[in-house]
Amino acid sequence: MMALVLHHPHRTGKIYRLPNERDMEAYRAAEKALEKKRQQLRDAWGIEPVPDEPLPIGGRDRYDTCRLPLYGLKQWGELFNARQKLALLTFADAVRRAHAAMLRAGYEPEFAKPVAVYLGLRLDLLATYLNTLVRWRSDVTSFERSFDRQALPMVWDYGELNPQGGARGEWELEGLLEVLSHVRRSSACAGTTIHDTATSLPWPDDYFDAVL
Known about the structure:
The protein is mainly alpha-helical. Helices cover 41% and strands 6% of the residues. The protein has helices at 21-45, 82-104, 109-129, 174-185, 207-211; strands at 4-6, 15-17, 135-137, 142-144.
């Protein structure tokens, strides 16, 4: 841990300080809590809660999209530190419990399932800011999430977001609810989905000219 970036809700700008022993104790406590949480969820889910699938093995070509195994990162779960794993597992468990609670409360399964999916999508977004590939951008004093492009480059130092700090609002649901509100209002407009290639479209060349 190199530095902490603090923000006061009623003041502009940010405050920087060196980590102290209390900060390190909090991290060590997260490491212990993670092992307890992993065992609990492993028993409840019947699978390893931390992703243990292997990362794709890239070479040294500059067009390779993932060179992380060259630096010793072999599994997807290794892209997260202990505190990040604990936070994401806690949120994932909460989503699963919310789905089960809706079913117990008598909600229709076809209502409970999409609610859990929407919460899961929001958790996915949080995960792009809560991993060890997140870059700290000193020019804008903010975080640059991973997956900004179709590659996973090695990052030598990273910024760790506080998921409950509200710095970027990744876990807040207001943005998702706004999208769902717009979708609900536009549900009367029917759409058509066609799965085809970009080089063999099923419309004549002048189709879009006529539509536009």
